[in-house]
Write a structure and sequence with these properties.
Radius of gyration: 15 Å
Shape: globular
Number of strands: 0
Number of helices: 7
Distance between the termini: 24 Å
Largest sheet: none
C-alpha cells in the first residue's frame, strides 16, 4: 500500500512538471496542446475510492493551474474527469474482472483502451476549452482546440502507455 502511494506521488509530480515546463509551451498549428497530465487521472484502478480519485484529480488540476496561469480551468476539468472516470472505465471492463484492475493496454486490450482514452480525453478537453473560452463567439477555434488537443493528447497517452508496458 505504501509503495502504491509513493508511486502515485512520483507520477503526480513528474506529470505536473512535464506539463508545466514542457507541454504547456507546445502549441501545434495554433490549436493543439498536449495535456498529458490527465493520464494520471485515467490510470486509477477499478476499486479505488471515488472520493480519492476526485481529491487527487483536484490537486493535480490545481497544481497545473497555479503554474500555468489558468485560474480554476484545469482544476475543475480534472475534478470532473476524476468524477466520471470510474463510470467510463466500467463501460470497458467485464463484470467478472478483478476489482484491482487498472486501465491499460495489457488489461483492456488495444481497441478498448483506445476508446477509453478517446472518451476520457474528449470529456476533459470539452470542459477545459469551454471554460477557457467562456464564450461561443469563436466556436470554430473552440472546435479546433478541442479536436486538435484531443487527437494530440490521445496519441501521446497511447504512446506513453505502450512504452510503459512494453
Amino acid at each position: 500500500m505504501k509503495m502504491e502511494v509513493i508511486r502515485q506521488v512520483f507520477t503526480f509530480v513528474i506529470l505536473c512538471i512535464v506539463q508545466v515546463l514542457v507541454l504547456n509551451h507546445v502549441n501545434l498549428f495554433g490549436c493543439a496542446t498536449p495535456l498529458l497530465y490527465i493520464y494520471f487521472i485515467m490510470s486509477f484502478r477499478r476499486d479505488y475510492p471515488k472520493w480519492g480519485i476526485m481529491l487527487w484529480s483536484f490537486c493535480l488540476g490545481l497544481s497545473v493551474d497555479i503554474f500555468s496561469n489558468t485560474p480554476g480551468v484545469a482544476a475543475s476539468s480534472a475534478t470532473f474527469l476524476g468524477f466520471v472516470q470510474p463510470f467510463i472505465f466500467s463501460l470497458f471492463v467485464q463484470r467478472d474482472s478483478p476489482d484491482d484492475m487498472r486501465p491499460g493496454i495489457g488489461t483492456l486490450g488495444m481497441a478498448r483502451y483506445v476508446y477509453f482514452t478517446l472518451i476520457c480525453v474528449l470529456v476533459f478537453n470539452l470542459l477545459f476549452f469551454t471554460l477557457e473560452a467562456f464564450s461561443f463567439f469563436s466556436w470554430l477555434q473552440w472546435l479546433r482546440n478541442i479536436g486538435g488537443s484531443t487527437v494530440l493528447t490521445a496519441l501521446l497517452i497511447l504512446a506513453f502507455e505502450s512504452v510503459r508496458k512494453g
